[in-house]
Design a protein that fits this description.
With 259 residues, the protein is mainly alpha-helical. The protein contains ten helices and two strands.
Length: 259
Amino acid sequence: MPPVRRDRWPCLRLATLLILAALPVGAGAPRARAAAAGAQAAQQSAGEKLARASDCFSCHTLDHPLVGPPFEAIAARYKRQPDALARLAEKIKAGGSGNWGDVAMTPHPDLDETQLADIVRWVLSLQGLRGQPEALAHKSFEYTLKDGSKVTLEFPLRDHGGHVSSDVFSGWEQFNSYCFRCHGEDATGSAYAPDLRHSLTAGMTRQQFIAISMAGRAAKGMPSWAGFFTPQEITQIYEYVKGRSVGLIPAGRPDAAAG
C-alpha cells in the first residue's frame, strides 16, 4: 500500500471549504426544524402517554363526544387563546363543570405542573390533524316483545343463535359484580339507588347513562366509575340494563352462547 502524501490534505480541506461555500445560507435550517419537530413530537407523545395512563380516555375520545367533549373540539376552542395552557391545566387539576355542560369533570390533584402541561400541549396539538370526525355507525335492531309489540334498539341484543350477545352478557357480569350493591340484583333497584330499568324507560339515553356512570353524582352518593370501568364496559352494562328495561332479558343469568 503506497504511503499517504501529506501534501494532499491542504487540497482536500480547500475542496471541502469550496463545497460548503457553495451551499445555500439556510441549508442547516431544515435539519434544525426537523430536530425541533422531533422534540415536539416526543413531548406530545409524553402527553398522550400520561392521558392514556390516567382516566382521560374514560370520558373523552379524540373525535366524538363521550362523557365530555372530544379532544379535537377542546383543541379547536382553545388553540389560539394565549392563556389556554394555564386554563386547561387548572381545569384538569381542579375538575368541575360549566364549560361543556353540567356533567362534572373528575379532578386530578395528583398530576404535577409538568405532567399537566404535557397533557395540555398534546391536546392542543390535535387540532386539524385527523381531518373530519369519524362517523359513528347508527344501526337499529328490531325485536318483538311478548305482547306482540315491537321495540327498536341501537345495538344487537342477541346473536344469530338466539343467545344474548357477548356484550350484553359482559354487561350482566359487570352489573351483578358491582352495580347490584346499590341498584339491586338484576337491575331491580333497592333502598339505596333507583331502579335503572325505570330510568331508561323514562327517557335516559345511552349518552346520559355513560356520562352519569363515569362522572358519578356526588350529591346523591354515587361514585365516579371513571378509571375503573372503561367506556366499553359501561356501554355493555347499559345494553344489559336496556334489555332488562324492555322485558327482553329475564332476571337471572342470561342465556349466553357456550364459549
